[in-house]
């Protein structure tokens, strides 16, 4: 896992960051800049998250949700951040799936179906 800068604002935040850095293969960001970037989407709503995780695979998503749940931290899943109603911002942990979980696995134009990762935008 790649480490990014990490001034954390609470004991719960510190424990969340420490555990995610240990348990995830993807990156974790709790620095002010990353938290600011993820404090908004395409809507008018703004809410600074506690931290951001960039899961590399489904196991990372499961681990992040498990860790956050154990600490009572809400989780927001985020793809491209194009929500016009604020669904991709929140005060807890943001899971940014657009960085690593962005592949199209199957595309069936005739059946009008696709099998894609969470972060395909």
TrEMBL record:
Domain FAD-binding PCMH-type: start-end pairs: 45-121
Keyword Coiled coil: no
Enzyme Commission number, as recorded: 1.1.99.14
Source organism, top-level taxon: Bacteria
UniProt KW keywords: Oxidoreductase
Residue ranges of the TM segments: none
GO MF annotation, one: FAD binding
InterPro entries, alphabetized: FAD-bd_PCMH, FAD-bd_PCMH-like_sf, FAD-bd_PCMH_sub2, Oxid_FAD_bind_N
Biological process according to GO: lactate catabolic process
SUPFAM superfamilies on file: FAD-binding/transporter-associated domain-like (SSF56176)
The protein's name: Glycolate dehydrogenase, subunit GlcD
Species of origin: uncultured Nocardioidaceae bacterium
Highest classification ranks of the organism: Bacteria, Bacillati, Actinomycetota, Actinomycetes, Propionibacteriales
């Amino acid at each position: 896992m790649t480490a990014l800068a990490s001034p954390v604002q609470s004991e719960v935040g510190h424990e969340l960051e420490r555990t995610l850095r240990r348990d995830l293969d993807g990156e974790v960001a709790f620095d002010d800049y990353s938290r600011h970037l993820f404090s908004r989407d395409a809507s008018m709503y703004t809410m600074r998250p506690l931290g951001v995780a960039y899961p590399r695979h489904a196991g990372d998503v499961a681990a992040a949700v498990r860790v956050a749940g154990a600490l009572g931290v809400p989780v927001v899943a985020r793809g491209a951040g194009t929500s016009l109603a604020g669904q991709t911002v929140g005060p807890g942990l943001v899971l940014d799936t657009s960085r690593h979980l962005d592949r199209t696995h199957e595309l069936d134009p005739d059946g009008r179906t696709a099998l894609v990762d969470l972060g395909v935008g």
